[in-house]
Design brief:
The complex is a heterodimer.
Chain A (H helix, E strand, L loop, with lengths): L2 H38 L7 H9 L5 H35 L12 H15 L18 H26 L3 H24 L3 H11 L8 H20 L1 H7 L3 H6 L4 H23 L5 H13 L3 H25 L8 H19 L4
Helix pairs in contact in A: 1-3, 1-13, 2-3, 3-8, 3-11, 3-12, 3-13, 4-5, 4-6, 4-7, 4-11, 5-6, 5-11, 8-11, 12-13, 12-14, 13-14
Chain B lengths: L1 E10 L2 E11 L4 E5 L6 H8 L7 E6 L2 E2 L5 H7 E4 L10 H6 L12 H13 L15 H14 L4 E5 L7 H18 L2 E5 L3 H7 L2 E6 L2 E6 L6 H8 L3 E6 L2 E6 L3 H6 L3
Parallel strand pairs in B: 3-8, 3-9, 6-7, 7-8
Antiparallel strand pairs in B: 1-2, 1-4, 4-5, 9-10, 11-12
Helix pairs in contact in B: 4-5, 5-6
Classes of the chains: A mainly alpha, B alpha/beta.
């Protein structure tokens, strides 16, 4: 090969990198546009200029300030953060466990959180439900419910990670442990519901519907902090994640501490999803679907795939949130129902379109 | 270059390697021979730090293996496992990943030039933009070898490098390994099952039986007695163009069929 061909070869790689950066930029732009659309849609009409002015500066009208900063903006930001976090977690789990089906729900995180919430509502009495004009059921003590849901999710993860570190389990065994924990927690939740009153069962069920309306600035702040921490870690360790795709043995001979990487990665992602599930309820399919959706566009280089999956997840959840508000307006459907509805056929479509996930 | 002294290794209570000792020089290709399960792969994994020996010492360039960090080890030893899998990335990226022990956060021009050089050395320049999923077994094995070379190692450990390849690809891959060993002055240890392929391309041999060294040295150790002892197989040795040829005796075949 001549010197020119060597230059051509590395130029071709550089072009590919530039293309991936463009995809990231395009996703970011699209997210900004969809985010603006999400702020625009609502029962009270607002113009785009009012929205932009309201976000970057304090508007004169206190109603617009209230509408944007207390209702629409926290909801849209929550959709972006939760979508990005769930998709990033799913993508990291799929790489670390070398399994295309790995996602927060397949590791029992969601079911653990649901059990925690059920304990809070039924056993600790945070489910004193009452009916209002607009919403059928409200939880009287959301903080207790969220705390218990968080510990439920963390307990599920702790069991799996302990088993993994003590017995040096394979990635397949980890997924199977997750399935077992999910089944166990589902059974526990059903048992609690069996002995609960009708109102408590309704409250438990209501909690499990992933709903972005539950998020405020405090919740968004914590989600953003954890997302930044996890995102920073995976970007810094991008080459280690790339090495791991070739198998544990190869990664270790390339100087990667595979068990340490797996433990820290899983711990961070599980913490992230536990917090999101505790605050917002169960939002299925984003973590599983976003990485598969974006991979054909951006490739397998984890330095680009992971942020792209996060942006794609944010985009999907904001779109799902918009749909949840407009489909049966003025009724707002919980976003978890939309993601499951749209996610299942979309995932099957992807499966049929591609030979390999 | 590599000095292995009294190496023992065990999986739990089961002792797999027993007092293995041998030396390997720069630019030398040694074939490790022996039956399945005799500890050949375990030996490679002990040398590259994937397994911890229970006793004994491994010295690389006069330095004990225990003193090297994982990163330093990755810059010194390239390892090709038994099974190479393909993932959806280009050949260039698959080889570039071998630069990981040298990489910072960003890929430098030097890494790109080095990767392009390795592609040229391994005859893969024309494949740079092709997905590894589209490669044949022989091509994929070349990519895996190129990836280990991108580490710029002084020692190359190859676990059955011509496993599952057709005869043409076997010869191509072994010729490539041989020429790279000489050209780059790398010390190469290859676990081999094909005795004739090993005889054609290796400088020396390490014959292992039940985790211990049966014989070590040049072609003089490839004798009918040693082969019978190693594989419980009767063979005849003939010479063709100055290279010994190992031919299994036909009367052994029925006994092999009846072994179960």
């Amino acid at each position: 090969m001549s010197a020119e061909t060597a230059v051509e070869t590395s130029d071709s790689y550089s072009r590919r990198i530039r293309r991936r950066l463009l995809v990231l930029l395009a996703l970011l732009t699209l997210l900004a546009i969809i985010g603006l659309l999400s702020l625009w849609i609502g029962s009270y009409p607002l113009s785009i200029s009012q929205i932009i002015q309201g976000v970057v500066a304090t508007p004169d009208d206190p109603l617009i300030t209230h509408l944007l900063w207390n209702i629409r903006l926290p909801r849209t930001v929550a959709a972006m953060l939760a979508g990005a976090a769930l998709a990033l977690s799913g993508s990291i789990m799929q790489t670390l466990l070398k399994n295309p089906l790995a996602a927060p729900s397949t590791l029992g995180v969601s079911q653990g959180a649901a059990f925690g919430a059920a304990c809070a509502i039924i056993l600790l009495g945070s489910g004193q439900t009452f009916s209002t004009g607009n919403e059928a059921v409200l939880l009287s003590s959301r903080s207790i419910t969220a705390t218990c849901a968080f510990f439920g999710a963390i307990f599920s993860i702790a069991v799996i990670l302990t088993i993994a570190s003590v017995r040096q389990l394979s990635s397949e065994a980890l997924i199977l442990s997750g399935v077992a924990m999910a089944a166990f927690f589902s059974a526990c939740t059903m048992l609690l519901q069996y002995f609960a009153s009708d109102l408590q069962v309704a409250a438990t069920l209501f909690w499990t519907f992933g709903d972005l309306g539950k998020a405020g600035w405090q919740e968004n702040g914590l989600m953003a902090l954890l997302l930044l921490l996890t995102g920073g870690f995976v970007l810094y360790r991008g080459w280690c994640f790339n090495s791991l795709q070739w198998g544990d043995e190869v990664a270790r001979t390339l100087g990667v501490h595979t068990s340490r990487l797996r433990l820290i990665g899983l711990l961070l992602t599980c913490l992230l999803t536990a917090v999101i599930t505790a605050y917002l309820g169960i939002i299925a399919f984003i973590g599983l679907m976003a990485p598969h959706l974006i991979r054909p566009l951006i490739g397998n280089d984890q330095r680009f795939l992971l942020p792209a999956a996060a942006l794609c997840g944010a985009l999907l959840l904001v779109v799902a949130d918009i749909l949840s508000r407009v489909i049966l307006a003025p009724v707002v459907i919980p976003v978890g129902i939309i993601t499951s509805f749209a996610g299942a056929p979309l995932f099957l479509f992807l499966l049929l379109q591609r030979r390999q996930l | 270059m590599i000095r292995i002294d009294q190496l023992d290794c065990a999986y739990g209570n089961r002792q797999v390697l027993h007092s293995i000792s041998f030396n390997l020089q720069q630019g030398e290709l040694v074939s490790v021979l022996g039956m399945n399960g005799c500890g050949k792969s375990t030996l490679l994994k002990c040398i590259n730090g994937l397994l911890q020996p229970s006793s004994g010492e491994i010295h690389i360039n006069g330095q004990s293996l225990r003193q090297l960090s994982r990163q330093e080890l990755a810059r010194t030893i390239g390892y090709l496992p038994q099974n190479t899998q393909a993932i959806d990335c280009t050949v260039f990226e698959a080889v570039l990943i071998g630069r990981r022990p040298h990489l910072g956060w960003q890929v430098t021009d030097n890494d790109l030039v080095e990767t392009a050089r390795i592609l040229r050395l391994t005859g893969l320049s024309g494949y740079a933009d092709r997905s590894t999923l589209q490669l044949s077994g022989g091509e994929l094995q070349r990519v895996a070898i190129a990836r280990t070379l991108a580490q710029q190692p002084s020692i190359l450990l190859l676990d059955e490098p011509v496993n599952h390849l057709d005869i043409r690809s076997q010869i191509d891959v072994m010729a490539l390994i041989h020429s790279l060993t000489k050209q780059l002055g790398i010390s190469t240890i290859a676990v081999m099952h094909d005795l004739n392929m090993a005889l054609r391309f290796s400088d020396s041999f390490l014959m292992m039986k039940e985790g211990a060294v049966l014989a070590t040295g040049g072609r003089e150790v490839i004798t009918t007695d040693n082969i019978r002892e190693l594989y419980q197989l009767q063979v005849v040795l003939q010479e063709l163009n100055g290279i010994p040829l190992v031919i299994p005796c036909p009367e052994q075949e029925p006994s092999l069929l009846n072994r179960s």
